[in-house]
């Protein structure tokens, strides 16, 4: 299965996730839900948050120009909820 298939089927397709993106550790969007765009600046903020989640936990994470409250951040994943 491709990363896009994973986003479409295993994440958004469950109905429990409304939008998702998979970003490479060196930048670049590998897959995202339809219309869910992640700018280069947003990608870098997310990548930095994997090493040091404190700023994302304090101020939230921005994706697709929208602020999300950080629910969980670890070295593999960041989960957010619309603010």
Automatic annotation (TrEMBL):
Pfam families, A to Z: Profilin
CDD domains: PROF
Compartments where found: Cytoplasm, Cytoskeleton
SUPFAM superfamilies hit by this protein: Profilin (actin-binding protein)
Gene this protein is translated from: PFY1
Keyword Cytoplasm: yes
Function: Binds to actin and affects the structure of the cytoskeleton. At high concentrations, profilin prevents the polymerization of actin, whereas it enhances it at low concentrations.
Subunit architecture: Occurs in many kinds of cells as a complex with monomeric actin in a 1:1 ratio.
GO molecular-function term, one example from the UniProt record: actin monomer binding
InterPro entries: PFN, PFN_euk, PFN_sf, Profilin_CS
Electron transport found in the keyword field: no
Identification of the protein by name: Profilin
Assigned GO CC terms: cell cortex; cytoskeleton
Keywords: Actin-binding, Cytoplasm, Cytoskeleton
Top-rank lineage group of the source organism: Eukaryota
Family: Belongs to the profilin family.
């Amino acid at each position: 299965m491709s990363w896009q298939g994973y986003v479409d089927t295993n994440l958004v397709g469950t109905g429990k996730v409304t939008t998702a993106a998979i970003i490479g550790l060196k930048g670049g969007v590998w897959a995202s839900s339809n219309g869910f765009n992640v700018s280069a600046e947003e990608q870098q903020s997310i990548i930095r948050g994997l090493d040091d989640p404190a700023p994302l936990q304090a101020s939230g994470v921005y994706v697709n120009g929208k602020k999300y409250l950080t629910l969980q951040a670890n070295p593999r994943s960041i989960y957010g909820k619309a603010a």
